[in-house]
Design goal:
Elements (H helix, E strand, L loop, with lengths): L3 E8 L2 E8 L6 H13 L29 H8 L3 H8 E6 L2 E6 L10 E2 L4 E2 L7 H4 L8 H22 L13 E3 L24 H4 L2 H8 L6
Parallel strand pairs: 3-7
Antiparallel strand pairs: 1-2, 3-4, 5-6
Helix pairs in contact: 2-3
Bound molecules: iron/sulfur cluster (2 copies).
One iron/sulfur cluster binds next to loops.
């Protein structure tokens, strides 16, 4: 039995999924594997492309805000995190809030997208948010779990970003409104020290309430 399962469910008449965790030691990688298995099995409805039974060559979700976790950035950076953050990501600072996402081109499409083919140039290393997005219905718990993982992972990237400086000792910022970033706003997360999703336990990322629901396999829509 898999440690995490994306279980097919029907929500408002459309095929989607719920998440169940069978093993308290399950990791974020187990969650990613479960969602990838579900998507590859093509059992779900695709709201943005209802006629399709796969996402192949559809790039509609590669043109929006794509948050990036520390592990995503390490996977894609190939050893040079500073260069990667500067060239491929977008750091937006508004007051004390820092948001780090995939960079977009002038057409508003992700810098990793090959627009002529509608395919990701970095598919094998694409961010967690890309691997786990499918435009089908999700249960409230499945949505919340994804959100909590992405938020913690992005916060850890922000913690790391405070330590990456440009040649003249400035922070890398692409866009800002009254920036006042403060490292004190970004405490350690369960991603601290991890270099792989296998090293981050789902239990540590989830709120206790959500953890209880997804491990007790209670259906909450
Ligand atoms: S999940 Fe993204 S790629 Fe797949 S059909 Fe929906 S919008 Fe297109
Ligand atoms: S990284 Fe790849 S899958 Fe993710 S938004 Fe960019 S092009 Fe799309």
């Amino acid at each position: 039995m898999d440690r995490v399962e994306a279980v097919p469910v029907v929500i408002n008449g459309q095929a989607g999924y719920d998440i169940r965790v069978a093993d308290p030691g399950a990791t974020v990688q187990d969650y990613l594997d479960a969602v990838n298995r579900f998507i590859e099995a093509a059992q779900c409805y695709r709201a943005r492309k209802p006629e399709a039974d796969s996402c192949f060559a559809c790039d509609l979700c590669c043109q929006e805000r794509i948050p990036v976790t520390l592990i995503d950035a390490l996977n894609m950076a190939e050893g040079d995190l500073g260069r990667f953050v500067g060239e491929m990501l977008h750091v937006y600072v508004e007051g004390r809030v820092v948001d780090i996402t995939m960079g977009l081109n002038e057409a508003g499409k992700c810098l990793c997208l090959d627009s002529s083919r509608g395919l990701c140039r970095n598919y094998g290393k694409r961010p967690l948010v890309c691997q786990t997005f499918i435009c089908c219905p999700l249960t409230r718990d499945a949505r919340k779990l994804r959100e909590e993982i992405v938020n913690a992972g992005e916060d850890e990237l922000v913690r790391k970003w405070f330590k990456i400086k440009t040649w003249n000792n400035n922070l890398i910022i692409h866009e800002a409104v009254s920036p006042r970033p403060d490292p004190g706003d970004y405490p350690r997360t369960p991603f601290a020290g991890a270099v792989s999703y296998r090293q981050v336990r789902l239990k540590d990322v989830c709120t206790p309430r959500l953890w209880k629901r997804i491990t007790e396999k209670k259906e909450v829509f």
